[in-house]
Amino acid sequence: MAGKMEPLPGTSDVWAPETAEWVKLENAAREVFSRYGYGELRTPIFERTAVFVRSIGDQTEVVQKEMYTFEDRGGRSLTLRPEGTAGVMRAIVNQGLAEGVEKRVFYMGPMFRGERPAAGRKRQFHQIGGEAVGRCSPVLDAECMAMLMHYLERIGVGQTRLLLNTRGTAEDRPAVCAGLADHFRPRIAEMCEDCQRRLETNVWRILDCKNEACRHGAATAPEIPGLLGETSRSFFAAVCRALDRLGVAYEADPKLVRGLDYYEHTVFEVVCDGENLGAQNAVAGGGRYRIELPGVKNAVPGVGFAAGVERLLLARGVLPGGEAMGLGEVDVYVAGLGEAGTVAGLELAQRLRRADWRVLAETEGRSLKAQLRTADKSGAGYVFILGEQELATGTVACKCLADSRQQVWKAEEAVECFRKWTKDI
Ligand code: HAM
């Protein structure tokens, strides 16, 4: 069977003990984000396609090339979520969001993008993200980045750099597009086909192209903050001042644009220079946005980020493809002979579990030899044995596998005696 039932390219099975590392990241997110007043939100994994197209932008790479879109039996166009922000906004607006009221939510879970799989680039990947929706303030942007950096510090992701830029607002867009188009037009013949199209449809994205010729063209492009009006520049200056005051280090990256169209003002990315990440070194990204939603008069403002769990794990040195454990770790194995011993063993196992021990119990009444082999493999430190003699005398035997010391107790007192015995050791 080996090799014939692999998960699809760009997807993975995650086994224990690696799953324990995922849980650590998820629980740390709950702990850190709750200190900033964020509550957890779980939105559906699929939504109407329009939810994403409208928010993310129909000219973006994600919408044009990467979404998993399908028609359901009712003929509706549905899409597996490629990111979290659009669904969060849909959910918030569905509940009703009064003007000026703030909502702070965080989320975690799988996202889906049909990208070419590579180390750190998956088709089903997982994000941990947060969104503060309803208000527009440079100080809020700084707090959002501070929370992200607090989280990364808490989970021990070091060697990070926070890259920061601004895209200005919708009013700045014509000037920025014109400035970038003026720069790229004379060079466009040498650039890739995608960028030739982008010149007309989404000139910002040329700055993000990984093609060598396009990067060469982008190197001398005008810096975005220099193309913005006074209001946007002063908003950005206020973000920087607040970050300085909070002691959050950042690097200005005047050509950072990010790939989703909903951003305005602040955009940021956290890259990690650790050795495991290679080219996919962006562990998190985010920014301020304003999203138009059907039935809502004014576009809704917000600021947020998402971190990629697979990349956070790589940054922490958790490499995929480690040991695949099909059983959880246990402290105790309960062996029972015959049907009576097996059932009595399971009853004892239940009492031990209620007393907080992690227990694996025999369920088939196999030979004692076979059961002791299983106990050994399970990693349990102790074995309880319910054989014929124990059943006849109403006792249980308990053996410490590390040093072979053994005890015999009355069955009904076994849990309490075991607790005392292990405490004394
Ligand atoms: P994004 O930059 O597209 O932003 O994704 C955020 C993070 O998700 C990336 O920095 C990366 O760590 C991870 N990621 C993205 N694509 C993949 C992939 N194919 N494989 C593995 N990891 C990946 C967003 O998704 C925005 N919704 C963030 C945001 C929230 N902006 C405002 N609020």
What do these coordinates show?
The chain contains 15 helices and 16 strands. It is α+β, with helices and mostly antiparallel strands and 425 residues long. The strands form three sheets. Strands 1-5-6-11-10-9-7-8 form an eight-stranded mixed β-sheet, sandwiched between helices. Strand 12 (332-336), helix 12 and strand 13 (359-361) form a beta-alpha-beta unit. Helix 2 (49-56) packs across helix 4 (85-95) and helix 5 (138-154) packs parallel to helix 10. The chain is elongated, with a radius of gyration of 28 Å. It starts with 17 loop residues before the first helix and ends with a helix. The mean pLDDT is 94. Residues 83-85, 113, 115, 120-122, 125, 127, 129, 131, 259-260, 282-287, 289, 304-308, 310-311 line the site of histidyl-adenosine monophosphate.
Task: Please tag this protein with its features.
15 helices, 425 residues, binds histidyl-adenosine monophosphate, alpha+beta, five-stranded mixed β-sheet
How far from one another are the termini?
A: 45 Å
Low-confidence segments, given as residue ranges, are none
Major beta sheet, strand line-up = 1-5-6-11-10-9-7-8
Bound molecules: histidyl-adenosine monophosphate
Cα-atom Rg, whole angstroms?
Answer: 28 Å
**Share of helical residues:** 25-40%
Count of DSSP strands: 16
Which band does the percent of strand residues land in?
Answer: 15-25%
Give me the secondary-structure category.
alpha+beta
